[in-house]
Design goal:
- The structure is a homodimer.
- Chain A is an all-alpha fold.
- Chain A folds into 2 domains: 13-78, Winged helix-like DNA-binding domain superfamily/Winged helix DNA-binding domain (Arc Repressor Mutant, subunit A, Orthogonal Bundle), CATH 1.10.10.10; 84-245, GntR ligand-binding domain-like (Four Helix Bundle (Hemerythrin (Met), subunit A)).
- The first copy, chain A, is built from 11 helices and 2 strands, in the order αααββαααααααα.
- In chain A, α6 (129-143) packs antiparallel against α7 (149-165), α7 (149-165) runs parallel beside α10 and α10 packs antiparallel against α11 (216-246).
- The longest helix of chain A is centred in the last third of the chain and has 31 residues, at 216-246.
- The interface between A and B is large, with 91 and 89 residues.
- Chain A binds a DNA duplex through α3.
Chain lengths: 270, 270
DNA sequence: CCATGGAAAAGGTATGACAAATATAAGTTT
DNA sequence: AAACTTATATTTGTCATACCTTTTCCATGG
């Protein structure tokens, strides 16, 4: 005969507390901008110590679920996230997967092609003058000869975001930021030749024209061609990054001895 | 004359430590499954106290970037996330946005229509027998008359996921899990009538047939019609959820007095 | 050879104190 | 009286230290 033992709690207290508060937020028992009890009170309610409560709060803060402020009338507040903060969270998570080589170049290029051509079609239907202005501003930036590589890539990302923004579809924007943003760290490492740059800028210009003319199919076709041209560049970038991950050194956190000069932190890893 | 003061650090130490370690992981200076120094050593390296280090580690743990284990040969390890864990993170973030009513029903329906028809086309091209089996398994579940509402909705989600899986495109899967998964909490609240259920199951069956026959366009058209039918249900669900959020009570964290019976926690919110 | 038990190592929790920020109230000066 | 300054209280942020719990591994004894 087997005895029913007490179910032993195997998750840490801070995790349980975090889950508990998180559930309260998700269920709507805690509304936006509502103030939580202060940490000492939370500790009393949950019957744990303050450090434990704080660890729980940090977990939630990492998910942008809460924000804290010192002082009286300060405290911890429910901080329901904007599209931007969620987008950043997603970007961080995706960047890892891509950086690890979880996806092949073919997959990445295909997914971008399919989704961005879709975005082109919707953008052509819904774009406003503001959207067109945003796109053209980026094209102007990209035509600057003095622009750094990072600057060019950042502008490229902003252009593609602008196209997605023009669809005027929130969920779609959210989804596509995932794919677009997560290429920043990769493409940043690539030296974009001057010739390539000009070609990209001209592609962007043509796409913008088509969207301005409400020609969704035309814009989609141009976008497809544009991304096709990026395939080679991406292949190069991913290969470089993979190589770097392969040669991971042993002791990456060696403290850089100096220390005294820097105000406080910012060192700690070699 | 204005003096250049030392740049005051405005972010908390635990945040800085977390960022520092996070950067090391993202840069590849810390490889997967690599062990970090123990907490006391980290505290020494960063010149902060152990609780501060622990708060930083909890931040990272919340992002599934690290995992911890007790005992000797335990410690903190880099835990680069799988597609599933990233997907879960994204789901949590998006669920909030949707729950808050950040998106309109039109936006949601349109985004699902556009992306899922896209998935149908790719699925028809790339599906394997396994994918078809997965879809048909869900259809079989949905035809069970005794299934609970939650069970039906969960199966619905799994079916749509199966379609996306059949595209064999990682980035696309990641993007679409975002949208599909985040509707679970909403659709779960809706009582699906028996008639509706049967209609959905039959839609799923026809879509599966078209994908099996490599008929991408046909599958896409069927999917579009299927989602069109869901528009009304979604409208109802979102209205209900919005109402619940509006009537947020004041004191949602009131401790349930009992306490002695529960092993340790699990209470704390009424 | 296997099982049992006990150290040791590492994360988990608790306590208590102090530091820093900041809103509010009180007091002082103009 | 108004405006500025100062005190003060509140709340998060940080620190130091101790102890508990889990897990590994080795030594010891059967």
């Amino acid at each position: 005969m087997t005895i029913e033992y007490d179910r032993i709690v195997r998750t840490s207290l801070s995790r349980q507390v975090a889950e508990s508060i998180r559930a309260a937020i998700l269920d709507g028992r805690l509304g936006v901008d509502q103030r939580l009890p202060d940490e000492i009170e939370l500790a009393r309610r949950f019957k744990v110590s303050r450090p434990t409560v704080r660890e729980a709060l940090k977990r939630l803060a990492a998910q942008n679920l809460i924000r804290s402020q010192r002082g009286p009338s300060g405290g911890t507040f429910v901080d329901l996230p904007s599209l931007e903060s969620v987008s950043r969270t997603i970007e961080g998570a995706t960047t890892l997967l891509i950086g690890m080589g979880a996806f092949s170049v073919e997959e990445i290029v295909l997914s971008r092609m399919e989704t961005e051509t879709l975005a082109c079609r919707l953008a052509a239907a819904n774009r406003t003058q503001r959207d067109l202005d945003a796109m053209e501003a980026e094209i102007a930036v990209e035509r600057e000869a003095t622009l750094s590589d990072e600057g060019f890539c950042a502008s490229d990302v902003r252009f593609h975001r602008a196209v997605v923004d023009a669809t005027a579809n929130g969920p779609l924007k959210l989804m596509m930021y995932t794919v677009i943003e997560s290429f920043i760290p990769i493409t940043n490492m690539i030296i974009v030749e001057d010739r390539e740059r000009r070609r990209a800028a001209e592609s962007h210009a043509r796409i913008t024209q088509a969207i301005a003319a409400r020609d969704g199919e035309g814009a989609a076709a141009l976008m497809r061609r544009h991304l096709e041209g990026m395939r080679g560049i991406l292949e190069q970038a991913l290969a470089q990054r993979a190589a770097r991950f392969a040669s991971t050194t042993e002791d990456a956190l060696t403290a850089s001895g100096a220390g005294a000069s820097t105000p406080r932190l910012l060192d700690g890893l070699g």
